[in-house]
Amino acid sequence: MTTSPPRPAPIDGETLVDWFAATARPLPWRAPGVTGWGVLVSETMLQQTPVNRVLPIWEEWMRRWPRPSDLAAASQGEVLRAWGKLGYPRRAQRLHQAAAAIAADHGDVVPADVDTLLALPGIGAYTARAVAAFAYGKRVPVVDTNVRRVVARAVHGAGDAGPPSTTRDLADVDALLPAEDAPAAALSAALMELGQVVCAVRSPACERCPIAADCAWQHAGRPAYAGPPKKVQKFAGTDRQVRGKLLDVLRDSPGPVRREQLDAVWSDAGQRDRCLDSLLVDGLVEQTDDDRFALPGEH
DNA sequence: AACCCGTGGCC
DNA sequence: TGGCCAAGGGT
């Protein structure tokens, strides 16, 4: 069949890469000489956490633990303290575990192969490809929430991305990448940056967009998002909030604390106990011989 | 697929 | 104020 005309490429990769080269923020993990380890730490910290909050913590971690084996040698409690209030402390716990595996099984060097990365704790579809592309310059589709939004708008003409589908999302982005490793990796970085600083969720800065002339969403008159409603998770009153309060007490204490100190942070005793139990099960908290509670390895 | 997992800033 | 969002991953 030849009746289907070729669809014009809505994303001009070279234009986008040039724009990135001229305007990219000088984030420290993008600096020359940053290792795969530095990139992995940054990508893990950036999961669901804004850049500005990650910056000082990443600097501290790189100074303190410049290699995976350095982090692996630290106690879990030290790692959780250094993670501070970045949120989702299980990310820190899994990064600690990944560091131990990298030190033991991969010569203390973060792997460059996507499947090898995926086998490490806390590294999923996004982070594995981000490390392969940004640390090692590989041609792999890197799909995060920003890239999904850019593709939804520029390629599909929709107001925003619908529900994620790893397989379809990877294929969409793969189709945009040039054949060679280096330019593909450069485009991956540029797509993410565009989604963050220009093609934003609210009030996108289309007047500053380097590819606005080819954007399907522009041509369609910038229609509003028409997909299924996105579910927003509650936080106030949830176990997540209570676990955070409990852990905050332990982070603020130099050593083990008594049960009463933990009881003070939440009035609902049933929920409090359930959350403390879950933290013990998760290995984020340990109970001492005298029935006090501490961060793992700190008693 | 749907739900759980922290934290803080913005409008 | 409270919904919404932020470079996701695990189950």
UniProtKB/TrEMBL annotation:
Keywords: 4Fe-4S, DNA damage, DNA repair, Glycosidase, Hydrolase, Iron, Iron-sulfur, Metal-binding. Residues 45-197 form the HhH-GPD domain. It catalyses: Hydrolyzes free adenine bases from 7,8-dihydro-8-oxoguanine:adenine mismatched double-stranded DNA, leaving an apurinic site. Its EC number is 3.2.2.31. InterPro entries: DNA_glycosylase (IPR011257), Endouclease-III_FeS-bd_BS (IPR004035), HhH-GPD_domain (IPR003265), HhH_base_excis_C (IPR023170), HhH_motif (IPR000445), MIG/MutY (IPR044298). It is an enzyme of class 3 (hydrolase). Its cofactor is [4Fe-4S] cluster. It comes from the Bacteria. Belongs to the Nth/MutY family. This is Adenine DNA glycosylase. It comes from Saccharopolyspora cebuensis. The lineage of its organism: Bacteria, Bacillati, Actinomycetota, Actinomycetes, Pseudonocardiales.
